[in-house]
Specification:
Elements (H helix, E strand, L loop, with lengths): L1 H10 L14 H23 L5 H111 L2 H22 L1
Main location: membrane
GO cellular component, one term: proton-transporting ATP synthase complex
Membrane topology: Single-pass membrane protein
Length: about 190
């Protein structure tokens, strides 16, 4: 390390340098800068690729960048295609959902109308059955009343006949009825 610092210190003692300052000669400073850069590139470039030149390295880098861009564009195209497919599936699913919703509502309305009609028919049948039952019971009651009235009238008539008929009238009525039956028998023969 002492040798390196000695070499910089000794630069200030060069007889041609004179004093410390800026070198304004552009050509000589550019040549020095270019030679330092080329030396560094050659020195460090040998370790990277002994048979490669700088243009080959740049071409390889350019190809990798182009391949990366191409791959990215292909991936982007695939992603866009998948996005469009997903959007199409979404639209289809939304349409199907709307259709199911509409069909569901119409099915509900149809079932509601069927239930109302069925209930109305059932109520109408029950009303008819009720009316038939009422008419049957009324007819049954009327027949019972008629039968009782007829029995009472018959009992009253028998009571009146029994009280009014004497033996002679009773025998004459029986004889006349037998005569009527006999004449009816002759007509049918």
């Amino acid at each position: 390390m002492k040798n390196v610092t000695d070499s910089f210190v000794s630069l200030g003692h060069w007889p041609s340098a004179g004093s410390f300052g800026f070198n304004t000669d552009i050509l000589s400073t550019n040549l020095i800068n270019l030679s330092v850069v080329l030396g560094v590139l050659i020195f460090f470039g040998k370790g990277v690729c002994a048979s490669c030149s700088l243009s080959d390295l740049l071409d390889n880098r350019k190809q990798r960048i182009l391949n990366t861009i191409r791959n990215s564009e292909e991936l982007q195209g695939g992603a866009i295609e998948q996005l469009e497919k997903a959007r199409a599936r979404l639209r289809k699913a939304e349409l199907e959902a709307d259709q199911f919703r509409v069909n569901g509502y119409s099915e509900i309305e149809r079932e509601k109308l069927n239930l109302i009609n069925s209930t109305s028919n059932t109520l109408e049948q029950l009303e008819n059955y009720k009316n038939e039952t009422i008419q049957f019971e009324q007819q049954k009651t009327i027949n019972q009343v008629r039968q009782r009235v007829f029995q009472q009238a018959l009992q009253g008539a028998l009571g009146t006949l029994n009280s009014c008929l004497n033996n002679e009238l009773h025998l004459r009525t029986i004889s006349e009825n037998i005569g009527m039956l006999g004449s009816m028998k002759e007509i049918t023969d």
